[in-house]
Amino acid sequence: DTAVSQTPKYLVTQMGNDKSIKCEQNLGHDTMYWYKQDSKKFLKIMFSYNNKELIINETVPNRFSPKSPDKAHLNLHINSLELGDSAVYFCASSQAGQGISYNSPLHFGNGTRLTVT
Amino acid sequence: AQRVTQPEKLLSVFKGAPVELKCNYSYSGSPELFWYVQYSRQRLQLLLRHISRESIKGFTADLNKGETSFHLKKPFAQEEDSAMYYCAVGVNSGGSNYKLTFGKGTLLTVNP
């Protein structure tokens, strides 16, 4: 029972192509995220969605377009891929806290290793 | 804006030795602090959360608000502890605007 699942696990493609990564969570969480882990293992948030609504967009190039058809899914589409897009992309989910209560911890997927040649 | 500093990029210890992974944060409000672990080519997994005040796999971490630190400690390191460890601060900026900001990670190697 994978709680947060991403597909594909590996993605090798050429510069200029358009590709998508899919993410699904079965935890009943209302918030989903995309993080990018670069070659130096640095993790940086890209987007977050809450109940299909974009909440966080961290100065990511507009070639990256997230789409959330429902609160259990958050897909990432990337246009005109560049060499610098090569990284591991992690999807995550959490449940937003209410009032003064804390958010639940983030649960991460296994990652998608994108290689642009 | 919140910031997390992990001063050691690499840390190498021998099996059975104590280990401490340092983490300092900067945030003006009341943050949540976490330690996540990533074993080789695997997903990030939650290790500890400051509000839980529990010990997981022998690791503990205490939030020190005076020093703005959340160092991760284990008295006797095991080879299977070898992994990348990330300290993170969780901040809710209002409504559902919540995000985790990660430090750059510390790669722990436990030698036999």
Report on the architecture of this protein.
The complex is a heterodimer of chains A (117) and B (112). Chain A is built from no helices and eleven strands. With 117 residues, chain A is mainly beta. In chain A, strands 2, 4, 5, 6, 9, 10 and 11 form a seven-stranded mixed β-sheet that branches. A four-stranded antiparallel β-sheet of chain A has the order 1-3-8-7, with no helix packed on it. In chain A, strand 5 (43-50) and strand 6 (53-57) form a beta hairpin. Chain B is an all-beta fold and 112 residues long. Chain B has strands at 3-5, 10-14, 19-21, 24-26, 32-38, 45-49, 60-61, 72-74, 83-92, 98-102, 106-111. The model of chain B has no long low-confidence stretch (mean pLDDT 91). At the A-B interface, strand 5, strand 6, strand 9 and strand 10 of A face strand 5, strand 6, strand 9 and strand 10 of B.
Number of helices of chain A: 0
Q: Main beta sheet of chain A: strand number and arrangement? A: 7 strands, mixed
Global mean pLDDT of chain B: 91
Instruction: Please trace the helix and strand order of chain A, writing H or E for each element.
Output: EEEEEEEEEEE
Q: What Rg of chain A do the Cα atoms give?
A: 14 Å
Q: What share of residues are in beta strands of chain B? A: over 45%
Distance between the termini of chain B: 41 Å
Encode the helix/strand succession of chain B as letters.
EEEEEEEEEEE
Low-confidence parts of chain B, pLDDT < 50 over ≥5 residues?
A: none
User: Mean pLDDT score of chain A, rounded?
Assistant: 91
Number of helical stretches of at least 4 residues of chain B: 0
Shape of chain B: globular
Which value, in Å, is the CA radius of gyration of chain B?
14 Å
Helix percentage range of chain B: under 10%
* Helical/strand content category of chain A: mainly beta
